[in-house]
Write a structure and sequence with these properties.
The protein has 245 residues and is of the alpha/beta class. The protein contains eight helices and six strands. The protein has a six-stranded parallel β-sheet, with helices on both faces. Helix 1 packs across helix 2 (32-53) and helix 2 packs parallel to helix 3 (72-95). Bound molecules: 3-methylbut-3-enyl trihydrogen diphosphate (2 copies) and magnesium ion.
Length: 245
């Protein structure tokens, strides 16, 4: 399958909703926390394969604004896993020349997570092979609301006029402003919804859903998604004839 992938037609930005850890664990008679622990290997595999394939931007939905409603114990495990993974994967990020970033309401995260996160973000800031963005305490509506508030302030203070506001002005005030639009959005676990992820940025993304639970997702599953992506015709409102001209 690998040989069929066209390395010149890779999406610039792949975003993944890593879903199904809990259900994966329950098929094994284990608790949800076991599922989260096993999700880490999938992250490692996907990050390494993305670098290998020359994907420039990978964004992973690791914890949503809505996930704060989960049981305290589960949130605690997820936060601890995050700190542990940032520590254990740090060298690999350096060796692969990967730049780590985070989007979301980062100041809502426990201090231990913030400290580890900013440590890795600072140390990898000059890396250039791939940007790995973790969406943490992230919600797209919250992100858009905050952009609208900032623009409202600018208008109120006469720094811009409402007529100045266009796509790019809005984009500039999103926390993903340094990233290109999403080309391919993958969701694992069989759910076919977006769950408040990158609503603005996926306007023209290709959507790919797979029944594979996140802890089972590996290189070959990413390749399958990319292969499907490469078969799609992205028309951006134009006709097929125009695209092929
Ligand atoms: C994804 O798996 C991980 C997070 C949302 C943090 P889930 O924990 O949502 O697993 P399911 O969907 O309940 O199986
Ligand atoms: C979306 O998964 C969030 C992450 C993968 C981090 P959820 O499991 O929280 O989504 P819903 O609630 O089923 O839509
Ligand atoms: Mg889920």
């Amino acid at each position: 399958m690998k040989s069929e992938l066209n390395l010149d037609k890779m999406p610039a930005h792949v975003a993944i909703i890593m879903d199904g850890n809990g259900r994966w664990a329950s098929t094994k008679g284990k608790n949800r926390l076991f599922g989260h622990k096993n999700g880490v290997q999938a992250v490692r595999a996907v990050v390494e394969e993305s670098v290998r394939l020359g994907i420039k931007h990978l964004t992973l939905y690791a914890f949503s604004s809505e996930n704060w409603q989960r049981p305290k114990e589960e949130i605690g495990t997820l936060m601890r896993l995050l700190v542990q993974s940032l520590r254990s994967e740090f060298e690999k990020l350096l060796n692969n020349n990967i730049k780590l970033q985070a989007v979301g309401e980062i100041d809502e995260l426990p201090q231990s997570v913030q400290d580890e996160l900013f440590h890795v973000i600072n140390k990898t800031a000059n890396n250039s092979n791939m940007t790995l963005t973790l969406a943490l305490s992230y919600g797209a509506r919250q992100e858009i609301t905050s952009a609208v508030k900032k623009l409202g302030e600018l208008v109120k203070n006469n720094l811009i006029s409402p007529d100045d506001i266009d796509d790019s002005t809005i984009n500039k005030h999103l926390c993903t402003h340094k990233l290109p639009d999403v080309d391919l959005l993958i969701r694992t676990s069989g759910e076919q919804r977006v769950s408040n992820f990158l609503l603005w940025q996926i306007a023209y993304a290709e959507l790919y859903f797979t029944n594979v639970f996140w802890p089972d997702f590996r290189e070959q599953n990413l390749q399958a998604a990319l292969l499907e992506y490469q078969k799609r015709e992205r028309r951006f409102g134009k006709t097929s004839a125009q695209i092929n001209a």
